[in-house]
Amino acid sequence: MATKRKPNAAFMAPLTPSAHLAAVTGSKALPRTEVAKKLWAYIKKHKLQDSKNRRNINADDTLKAIFGGKKTVSMFEMTKLVSKHLKK
């Protein structure tokens, strides 16, 4: 019988977003998974995914503040940049 995988507690711990990130996700503490969901919902709603290279996100002014002023970031780079805006 297969055992159900337990989610990593550190991964699920609620983290407080910075003021810049709160503009997208809201100001209450959320686990990383929820932050990622809200970020993707924002990206899709504002059609910020690059049409030629789907792995890239074209930042609007709100996201540019989170992405350290960069106009375009890859999905992988986005994760790293967003984690700087989360604190325990």
Structure description:
- By secondary structure, the chain is of the alpha+beta class.
- It has helices at about 10, 20-25, 30-45, 60-65, 75-85; strands spanning about 15, 55-60, 70-75, 85.
- It has a single domain (about 15-85), classed as Orthogonal Bundle (MDM2).
- The protein contains five helices and four strands; from the N terminus they run αβααβαβαβ.
- The longest helix is centred in the middle third of the chain and has 14 residues, at about 30-45.
- The model has no long low-confidence stretch (mean pLDDT about 90).
Number of strands: 4
Lateral arrangement of strands in the main beta sheet: 1-4
Approximately how much helix is present in the residues?
40-55%
CATH topology: MDM2
When the domains are counted, the total is: 1
Q: Report the radius of gyration as a whole number of Å.
A: 14 Å
Q: What is the CATH domain class?
A: Mainly Alpha
The assigned CATH architecture is Orthogonal Bundle
How many helices in DSSP terms? 5
Show unreliable segments. none
Helix-strand category:
alpha+beta
Main pleated sheet: 2 strands, antiparallel
Estimate the mean pLDDT confidence. Answer: 92
CATH homologous superfamily annotation: SWIB/MDM2 domain
* Beta fraction: 5-15%
Q: Which outline best applies?
A: globular
Q: In sequence order, what are the helices and strands, one letter per element?
A: HEHHEHEHE
Report how far the terminal alpha carbons are from each other.
36 Å
